[in-house]
């Protein structure tokens, strides 16, 4: 095997535990981070859906052009 491939492989194996360790050093447990990311995801989904639903309601309740 080539040396760069070995470095990449070993780095990929090390990444998940290193990320968890860094997050834990930040003062939050992995469960806390999952909660924060879930709430962020939920807020983004709500932020994307509310304007779409408001537009649909305006179109539904708006004046019709039927004469």
What are its keywords?
67 residues, mainly alpha
Radius of gyration: 24 Å
| Shape summary | elongated
Q: How far is the first residue's CA from the last residue's CA?
A: 77 Å
How many individual domains? 1
Helix content: over 70%
Q: SS-based structural class? A: mainly alpha
How many strand elements?
A: 0
Give the mean pLDDT: 81
Number of helices: 2
Tell me the β content.
Answer: under 5%
Instruction: Give the SSE string.
Output: HH
Major sheet, described briefly? Answer: none
Unreliable residue runs: none
Outline the structure in words.
This is Phage holin T7 family, holin superfamily II. The chain crosses the membrane at residues 33-54. With 67 residues, this protein is mainly α. The chain has one domain (3-61). Helix content is 82%, strand content 0%. It is built from 2 helices and no strands. It has helices spanning 3-25, 30-61. The longest helix has 32 residues, at 30-61. The chain is elongated and about 70 Å long. The mean pLDDT is 81.
């Amino acid at each position: 095997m080539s040396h760069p491939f070995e470095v990449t492989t070993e780095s990929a194996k090390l990444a998940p535990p290193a990320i968890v360790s860094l997050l834990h050093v930040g003062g939050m447990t992995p469960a806390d981070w999952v909660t924060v990311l879930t709430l962020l995801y939920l807020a983004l989904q709500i932020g994307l859906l509310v304007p779409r639903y408001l537009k649909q309601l305006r179109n539904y309740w708006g004046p019709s052009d039927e004469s």
